[in-house]
Amino acid sequence: GGLFELARAGGVRLDVERDAIPVLPGVLETCEFFDVDPWAAISEGTLLCTVDPESVDAVLAALDDEGIPAAEVGSVREGEGVFVDGERIEHPGVDPFWATFEENVAKQRDAEDGGPTDEEGREEDAE
């Protein structure tokens, strides 16, 4: 999400190193469980910055002083698009998080109501 927005807004190419991106515990496991591509999901709560290369250490130190986890994850160059470990990745178009969220909320409601979990059953219950 956020990488594409940043690249598009700046009219630049972003080269990112996958292993350099800090990921909170449980995030990858959750994405895997729900079959959500973490590169296509929203970047809720994430701050992406482009920083002059000479200022990177100072910015990282200032964020660390405030207890904010941060890392240098790549570089900006002329061009367009987002490249992870040298491979171009495409914008997903639609954030897979929301479809997964809605599907699982519906399942939870059905389980709580003791009702069916298929679309046909929900329509009959609504009548």
Explain what the structure shows.
- This protein is an alpha+beta fold and 127 residues long.
- The chain has one domain: PurM-like C-terminal domain (Phosphoribosyl-aminoimidazole Synthetase, Chain A, domain 2).
- It has helices at residues 2-10, 27-33, 56-65, 96-113, 119-126, and strands at 13-16, 74-77, 81-84, 87-89.
- The protein has a four-stranded mixed sheet with strand order 2-1-3-4.
- Strand 3 and strand 4 form a beta hairpin.
Mean pLDDT: 83
Helicity range of the residues?
40-55%
**Integer count of domains:** 1
Structural class: alpha+beta
Strand content: 5-15%
Protein name: AIR synthase-related protein
Organism: Halobium palmae
Region (Disordered): 105-127
Domain PurM-like C-terminal: 3-84
Topology:
Blueprint: H1 2-10, E1 13-16, H2 27-33, H3 56-65, E2 74-77, E3 81-84, E4 87-89, H4 96-113, H5 119-126
Parallel strand pairs: 1-3
Antiparallel strand pairs: 1-2, 3-4
Domain PurM-like C-terminal: 3-84
Region (Disordered): 105-127
Protein name: AIR synthase-related protein
Task: For the structure shown, list the relevant keywords.
127 residues; alpha+beta; Phosphoribosyl-aminoimidazole Synthetase, Chain A, domain 2; four-stranded mixed β-sheet; 41% helix
